[in-house]
Amino acid sequence: MRMLVNAIVGLCVIALLGVVWSKSSREQDEAARAAGAASAIRTIHQVLSYQAAFDKAPSNSRGWPITIDPAWFEGDPPRNPMVSGEHPWIEIASPAEAGLLHPQVRLAVSPTLAGLWYNPYQGVVRARVPVMISDAKSVALYNQVNGTTLATIFQKEIPLVVPMPDSRSVEAGMAPPATVGP
Q1: In terms of C-beta distances under 8 Å and separation of at least 24 residues, what long-range contacts does 7-14 make, across chains too?
Q2: Cα(3)–Cα(1) distance, integer angstroms
Q3: Average pLDDT value for residue range 60-76
Q4: Can you name the residues that pair with 58 across neighbouring β-strands?
Q5: What's the pLDDT at 21?
Q6: Distance from C-alpha of 139 to C-alpha of 175, rounded to nearest angstrom
Q7: Domain layout of the chain by residue ranges
Q8: Of 104, 103, 133, which is closest to residue 118 (Cα–Cα)?
């Protein structure tokens, strides 16, 4: 009988260690994906700054490229590793979103939403985050990845006042929202 009790205790300890290891591994994976998304944002912003500084791409009146060409990344554009590959690569903000610093939908709630969002009117790139167990966890992850300080993931943003696109950006094809890439 004592042997049976010892075996059951041993199995419980092994199961507990397995749960702790699994949770730790999952948290490390989440942290790595968040760091990867933050790195993707930095890389895209650096390339955008380069394109703008050397006039290598059509830009708007504020000096930012009006779109992002995947070829700028030698055929391997940085992606948001927090969302699955079925999501489009990047979404370009529409003229109606010109005053926003964040996408209206910040969670990757649908495979039709791109993993990344670029507002050429503000020169900002944001990563959408997966749906988490709570609003607090979602906003914490969003803020961590994007370097922001939103109070809630659903925070209504008051758009900045942005002048209407000038003739140069209209001629260059400043268009309604677009999703770029595979």
Answers
A1: none
A2: 5
A3: 91
A4: none
A5: 77
A6: 30
A7: 2-180
A8: 103
Q: Map tokens 């209407």 to a residue.
A: 164
Q: Do residues 154 and 136 touch, judged by C-beta distance below 8 A?
A: no
Write out pLDDT tens, residues 69-125.
999 999 889 999 999 989 999 999 999 999 999 999 999 999 999 999 999 999 999
- Give pairs for 158-166: CB < 8 Å, separation 24+: 159/97, 159/98, 159/99, 159/100, 160/99, 160/100, 160/101, 160/122, 161/99, 162/98, 162/99, 162/121, 162/122, 163/61, 164/95, 165/60, 165/61, 165/95, 165/98, 166/60, 166/61
The partner residues of 90 in beta bridges, in order of sequence, read: 116, 180
DSSP annotation of 156 reads: P
How many residues are listed for the chain in this entry?
A: 182
**Structure-token pair, residue 164:** 């209407």
Taking the whole predicted model, whether its pTM rises above 0.85 is answered as no
Closest CA to 129 of 157, 152, 109: 109
Torsions phi, psi of 132, nearest 5? Answer: -105, 180
Distance of CA 89 to the CA centre of its chain: 10
* Alpha-carbon span 112 to 108, nearest angstrom: 9
Return the residue matching tokens 């419980």: 12
Q: How far apart are CA 106 and CA 28, in angstroms?
A: 23
Q: Which residues contact 142 (CB under 8 A, 6 or more apart)?
A: 106, 127, 129, 148, 150, 153
